[in-house]
Design brief:
about 10% strand, two-stranded antiparallel ribbon, mainly alpha, about 80 residues
Length: about 80
C-alpha cells in the first residue's frame, strides 16, 4: 500500500501531510474537482480571449504548466495503449 500511495502522491492524485504512521492522505484539489459529477461542478466561465488571442504557430493554446501536465498524461496513456507493452 505504501508504494501505491507514494505513486499516487507523485502523480498528483493525492496529497500527503505528516510522516510515517501519522501521515494523512487526501485527494488533490484537481482530483477533488473531477470527483464531483459534471452536472454538480461549479461552472467555469468562458474565456473568449483564449480563442481570440490565439495565433497558430506563434502563441501557446495552454499555459506552459498545463501543457506539461497534458504531455505527461498523454505519454502515460500512450504507454498503456501500446500494443507491445
Amino acid at each position: 500500500m505504501s508504494r501505491v500511495f507514494s505513486s499516487l502522491v507523485a502523480s498528483g492524485i493525492l496529497t500527503k501531510s505528516g510522516e510515517t504512521k501519522g501521515a494523512k492522505f487526501a485527494l488533490s484539489d484537481l482530483t477533488s474537482y473531477f470527483a464531483v459529477p459534471p452536472q454538480l461542478r461549479q461552472p467555469v466561465p468562458y474565456d473568449a480571449g483564449r480563442i481570440n488571442d490565439y495565433v497558430p504557430n506563434q502563441t501557446r493554446w495552454l499555459p506552459a504548466a498545463a501543457s506539461a501536465r497534458f504531455e505527461q498524461a498523454a505519454r502515460g496513456a500512450m504507454h498503456q495503449l501500446d500494443v507491445s507493452a
